[in-house]
Amino acid sequence: MSTPLVIIHYDEIALKGGKRRAFEQQLVKNLNALLKARGWPLRARNAWGRIFIDPAAPKQDVPLPDDWRADLRAALSLFPGVATFGFVEVAEKSMEALERLAPAFAERVMGHTFRVSARRTDKRFPLKSFEIERAFAAAMFRAAPDGALRAKMRDYEREVHIEVLDADIVVYLKEPGIGGLAVGSSGNAVSLLSAGFDSPVASFMLMKRGVRIHPIHFHSMPLVSDEALEAAKDLAQRLSAFQGRLKLALVPVLPIQEHIREHAPAHLRIVLLRRSFMRLACAYAAEIRALALATGESVGQVASQTLENMRVIDDAANLPVLRPLCGLNKREIIDIARRIGTEATSARPCDDTCSLFLPKAPETKAKLEPVLEAEARLELAPLEARALAERELAWFAFGQPLEEPPAAPPSRW
Ligand code: ATP
Ligand code: MG
């Protein structure tokens, strides 16, 4: 076996008892899809409780680009299922050779508390794990100016990890990922994706829990410009970086809005439109066999996001409506948006569906009965069927748009 270039650890997956193998395989599969999409001659494989990324078989002698480490670091630090990862340095199998790597690692942990941890896959190596840890840490201290290094056994900021493998010894600094579960291990959900801050973050949170997201965006073209639609596409493209293949559905809802505006009381417009969104999203979910919906709502964030309204809106859905942000504050949501790279797109000003449609005094404490009565006087079913039939699709994979629909069977998307 070749010496790995990168070692990846997962945490939660290891806890999942009988399901563990399936989770590991899903993560390996997702990592291989990423490596393949980048066109790099690298392969991920399962390696006794962790994952190795190795050079691919020599027949593929495609060179790695110079910046592959920076690119892979950015991807792994937000890859659902990856708890930590490290780019390895390799030493021959002796303490002398190993200790020659100590000065470089001393430099990398300077200014932070750190610990050294060691693990032996090859139990024949003469030193025990704790002896390797001590000797390497001592070599790091010798290499650094007095007082420059601070070792700490618990609550350290950096971890230098040593593994004695069959052929060599590898050393790496553990870098943090986001953990969670590999996308594809928790089923499918339709995510209502607007052009704002919240819904992309909500989608990301569910991907982190292993859910494959199928975003749906409702737009009011041609009444409004295509700004919101373009923003939704850009957000979907960014979100595809975390889950690989991703298909965005773009659904025209202007006729529905016009019908509601003409035939329903102004204060109920928003609630009625949201109920229509729920029905459309559920119908779409049934087609693609998704088991839940997701929105970016947070309790009390805006006047319309009250428990009363949520209850009336959810009544129109026949699937569970997940709201991964319901307990977060706006600042917390924007911090995540910044971290996952959706903030700038979400901050772009645009006319979205609801701002044009907004009455002066929208209902903030909707009651089910009057809403159902108002809805009974509308003829939304044919308009909803048409909207769904007229949807367009946009395809993305690992942060890039695809010009053509992919060859994979539609059910796999
Ligand atoms: P966001 O920041 O996600 O736009 P928001 O704070 O603007 O949310 P609302 O406008 O009340 O809140 O929307 C609540 C949720 O409804 C959104 O998070 C999103 O999931 C869904 N939603 C709103 N508008 C659309 C749309 N045009 N297409 C798809 N989903 C939408
Ligand atoms: Mg919005």
Morphology call? elongated
Number of helices: 15
**Name of the CATH homologous superfamily of the largest domain:** HUPs
Q: Mind telling me the C-alpha Rg?
A: 26 Å
State the major sheet: 7 strands, mixed
Mean pLDDT: 92
What is the strand tally? 17
Low-pLDDT runs: none
User: Which ligands are bound?
Assistant: adenosine-5'-triphosphate, magnesium ion
Strand content: 15-25%
Distance between the termini: 34 Å
CATH topology name of the largest domain: Rossmann fold
* Sheet with most strands: strand arrangement: 15-14-11-12-13-16-17
Total discrete domains:
2
Structural class call reads alpha/beta
List keywords for this structure.
seven-stranded mixed sheet; 17 strands; 15 helices; 413 residues; five-stranded antiparallel sheet; VC0802-like; binds magnesium ion; Rossmann fold; binds adenosine-5'-triphosphate; alpha/beta
